[in-house]
Amino acid sequence: MRSWNVALIGVADHDAGAASALVNAALQVGGALGTAVFTTIYTSAKSSYLSSNTAPVPPAGVPPEALASQTVPSDSELAALPEPIRTFVTSTIDYMFSAEVSGYAHAFAAAAIMVVLISPIVLVLVRARKTDLPAGDTPVHMG
Under a CB-based contact definition with an 8 Å cutoff, are residues 92 and 73 in contact? Predict the structure, then answer.
């Protein structure tokens, strides 16, 4: 099965190479820009969640270094903890995962909004028809 680049429809044969390079550059820049925008949205939403919601407070009398583990405990490790520490650890896990979910939810919501806004534009502007495609098995001259 053959696929044709819609962006090259209507481009003269002698300009196909330059047009293809322009399409490739636009895809590269667009991907980098999209990654930067969505990472910024994610980071902002996560930071906003963390600053607007209070973090769990460790139980009284527990030194901070006792709670300094950087890993999420397994269920058996969690069950072995005394009750006030177990409650603190589970609420801290919930707090951090909620911040992650907030960041991802905002980034995906922004992406969905962009798709909804851009789709009608694409549907109106892209007018490719089957008759616009090159006919036959002859390759298009690229030079």
Answer: no
Question: What's the 3-state SS for the chain?
Answer: CCCCCHHHCCCCHHHHHHHHHHHHHHHHHHHHHHHHHHHHHHHHHHHHHHHHCCCCCCCCCCCHHHHCCCCCCCHHHHHHCCHHHHHHHHHHHHHHHHHHHHHHHHHHHHHHHHHHHHHHHHHHHCCCCHHHCCCCCCCCCCC
> How confident is the model at residue 3, as a pLDDT?
46
Mean pLDDT value of segment 72-76: 86
Helix 83-125 / helix 16-52 crossing angle, nearest 10 deg: 150
Give the residue-averaged pLDDT of 76-90.
88
Task: Please tell me the pTM assigned to this model.
Answer: 0.75
* Residue that is written with structure tokens 């549907």 in the block: 123
